[in-house]
Design a protein that fits this description.
Number of helices of chain A: 18
Strand content of chain A: 25-35%
CATH superfamily of the largest domain in chain A: Aldehyde oxidase/xanthine dehydrogenase, molybdopterin binding domain
CATH architecture of the largest domain in chain A: 2-Layer Sandwich
CATH architecture of the largest domain in chain C: 2-Layer Sandwich
CATH class of the largest domain in chain A: Alpha Beta
Number of domains of chain A: 3
Distance between the termini of chain A: 57 Å
Radius of gyration of chain A: 25 Å
Shape of chain C: globular
Number of helices of chain C: 12
Oligomer: heterotrimer
Largest sheet of chain A: 7 strands, mixed
Order of helices and strands of chain C: EHEHEEEHHHHHHEEHEEEEEEEHHH
Distance between the termini of chain C: 54 Å
Number of domains of chain C: 3
Helix content of chain A: 25-40%
Strand content of chain C: 15-25%
Largest sheet of chain C: 5 strands, antiparallel
Structural class of chain A: alpha+beta
Chains: A alpha+beta (699), B alpha+beta (151), C alpha+beta (271)
Chain lengths: 699, 151, 271
Amino acid sequence: MTAVGRNVSRKDGIGKATGRAKYADDLVFPGMLHGRTIRSTIPRGRIKSIKLDFDTTGFTIVDYHDIPGRNVVDLIEQDQPFLAERDIRHFAEPILLLAHESLERVNAARVEIEYEELEPLFDPEKSDGILKAIDINKGDVDAAMAKADIVVEGIYRTGHQEHVYIEPNGVVATPENGGVAVFGSMQCPFYVIKALKCMLGADAQIRVVQTETGGGFGGKEEYPSMIAGHAALLALKSKRPVKIIYDRLEDMVATTKRHPSIVRHRTGVMRDGRIVAMDVDVLLDGGAYVTLSPVVLSRGCIHAAGAYRCENTRIRGRAVATNTPPNGAFRGFGAPQTEFAIEVQMDRIAATLGVDEVALREMNALRPGDTTATGQVLREDTSALAVLDEAVRRTEFRRKRAEYRGTNRTIGLALFFHGAGFTGSGERHLNSRARLDLTETGVRIAVGSTEIGQGTRTMHAQIVSDALDIPYESIEVAQPDTSVVADSGPTVASRTCMVVGKILEECATAMRDALGGLTPREYFARHGAFSVERKYEPPDWIEWDDHTYRRDAYATYGWGCDVAELEVDPDTFEVKPIRLTAVQEFGRPIHPALARGQIEGGTAQGLGYALLERVVMRNGAMANGQLTNYTIPTTLDTPEIDVVMLENPYPGGPFGAKGLGELPMDGPAPAVVNALRNFGLDVREIPATPEHLSTCASL
Amino acid sequence: MRFTLNGSEVDVDAHPMSRLLDVLRVDLGLTGTKEGCGEGECGACTVLIDGEPVCSCLVPFSQAEGTNVRSIEGLGDDHPLQRLFMDEVGAQCGICTPGMVLAALSVGESPSLSDVQTALAGNLCRCTGYSAIYRAVLKWRGVSPDGASSI
Amino acid sequence: MRTAISELDLRRARTVDDALAMVADGRTPVAGATDVFVALNFGTLRERAFVDIWALRELRDITATGDTLVIGALATYTDAIRSPVVAGWLPMLIEASRQVGGPQIQNRGTFGGNVANASPAGDSLPVFAAVGATIVLRSSNEERRVAFNEFYTGYRATAMRPGELIVAIEVPRVDGRQWFRKVGTRAAQAISKVVAAGVRGDEPRFALGSVGATTVRVPSAEKALRSDDIAGAAAALSAGITPIDDVRSTADYRRRVAVNLLRRFWSDTAD
């Protein structure tokens, strides 16, 4: 019996449900110290003096002088220090590290820092610190706009969003082999080891191991390099294991969040509904350092024109610096922001033209053979119309839209898409590898891809099982340990199934040939162990120009259409979601229940983004950094989520699968806002809190 | 101070204002109970005291004296609800799962969907959107998800 | 960051008299700890010496005697939800209790704690205000009663004297239809942005939380209701409350919603 396509028993075992699975804070090492990060309390300025106002007996104290290599967190740029030397660019910037045997003593230590304060900049619209600029041009926007019957303009805003993985960031670093081993909650162990090598020196003995991770959502893509570096420095100086676990407040205030956005649209349309010109301006607030802003902007811009065809498109994107903690990866990675904008813009266009919002989308949706904003010619793996039609049919959208008019109920929709894998030449640069090891009893998967709840272990094992034609039960998955597994690239960008799964499929096929008809046991008994390693081979038809931002941005796209049904309380403007219908096409599911889990979970996160989750910034710092005041959806806030998984197998993916992790995030917010607009409120920003709704103009 | 933990008498010497959460995790080395927020908002630290779910991050150790405390370890390794959480994908990353399972034990016979949602209103999950958790709990109580009344 | 436990001193009270002696000694009572331990975890705990009163069974009862419903200070929200006595006498207290936190908090939070904590956002407080409850205070020397509407003297300030413990909340027979509404930051585990309780009888009462330094009733609004002047009541209410902007909501929103809730109370409880 094949494994792919069935809800096989998960490789995680039962440990997550019994409490036996070990997360970072569950690890205890003999002689372990507790670490703490002393952070700036101003958003911009210079350190004048540091005074240790406590008895330092038994303490290990680390500052930037203790960094043997380079004091930079190596990522896209090398601008962010592990520890501030003199300049402070954001509140909660790390300055000093302390460690002590007693958690109580380390928390009680008083450090007095004197600053020279400088005027901080918080408004991205006033910033001239460009972290990244991207320009996408297709056709002749100005000429086409001049010939349009109607031009519709709009400005759309999205705020920060905090990941709220239920497990905060945490690591334990321990001296090992003259160097250091780091165990922790993370998505990308090879990002961490790369950053540590830069900090400690290329010859440093470093091993990074991912522990069971309690949620990531992008919040543990790049940030763990920082906390791992801190723990490593303390471990090396103290020669003891050091554990650093952030409490919820520190995690929310100091670590990355989703980039806030301001997106301006000017769309030229003909009276019959055809979109003839799109002019889009995307502004992202990157916070104080570059981190991943260039790629967030990239994905955001590429998706900014939405799931629509338009011969004349200009997208101008800027990510700018402000004196706030750096923003970073969060599921969707720029696309939730820009697809929010285009989808609300589409509903406004429909209203302006006096046409039905479904018909407007049907007319302009991308079809096979059409080109995207970057000039990519789409192929048969394009399902915009299919998801739209199914969502409209299934929810009886038009009937409900009419029926709800004048009541407290309302309905709205959003059509969206999401490129799978790294953008353009990204996958080629990553040069990811996967390895299969033959063992005495079967096969072991050895990749750096991490299980963070999405089902990596299980889904990879299913692919290998069918490609190798061996029982699923005989496959084990190695814990991601940089000294053991192959670097299959980061667990991000909806690539773990489609890209890494594909490389594993290649490995399995090669291993199957090598086994020559023997079972793994038989082969092992006769010849012993062997391994097959393969690297990623991008599809040969992909052409991408990093300078002009033209052609094939992604190997394929997932497609979705969400319909939100809401009830609005006229007394309080509270919005109660009644049902969210999510129709999504992502090739085909490898494990249907795990895939459904991605859609349900991502949709719930999108609902929080739309209605409940507001980061309140005061003086450049999150003022509501506690779960009491930053409110994610509880059971009572989350409606029934009706999931439909359409299939359209993608030949370039393992068994036809595309990426799925982020797609569900792009639809809920615009679907909700469009429903609120249909209710009669002119909403153009999220979160659409009751306070905000009570100030919106009536439509 | 003596109390019953997972059916056995234990005697732990810890500061009376220690959080019960820390007595379990640090003094007793039982790390199945998790800390997600320290505010009683996420429910990841849920344990049962005399059968009732509480947030152990908000319980002074002195108040455990003479009580019957049940942590996730007390459920063993093969409780049907645990298996259902894995099979129905009620657990994705798993960090909320121990607290969620213990809170779900208070769901009575023949529950409606609303009963399950109310019982779990004090447990946050960021991964699942809760639907699969309902499926696991309803199945455990022998109710088909379609058989339960919707919201 | 957490308050250092080693700096704290907790002793358990075996009897109420025990507890009262320790309170007189300057110890701060800890019951369900759902407020005290949040402060401890957050590092904002100011007190250092505590008396654990959780085990004082005699303070947990909920009983009806003649014309008075007596809610023991240590009765939890769950105790109220499960109490047939409360269901008959003060069903809006059950509604309020169901909307406090989630089950874990309901199992531990007490009414005495809610009253003593003196947050203007306390969910049970408008209920007690609207029914004219009485707070029963005991010290080693005496027992005295303070009308709920005289209990709060300012923001997080009460009429309690040193050495006193809240032992019960007494609720008279409620004359009229009961109405309760909490507008929180979300549907569960929410702090109220506006919370209101009303009684519609010959003398309508309407009490609000989260719109001022304490739970409030606006007498001029209640007077207008007596003559069915809802417009006058709304105007008086709007003028009589002092909501603020904070991380959860805005003054404008709170004011607007408070008035809407008043109108909704009136229309919901009409014949």
